[in-house]
Amino acid sequence: MRKVLTAVSTLLVSTAECERGFSAMNHILTDGRNRMNVSTLHNLLFISVNAPDVASFPARRFAEMWLKQGHHAAIDPPTGKQKKEA
Question: H or E element: which one contains 81?
Answer without folding.
Answer: none
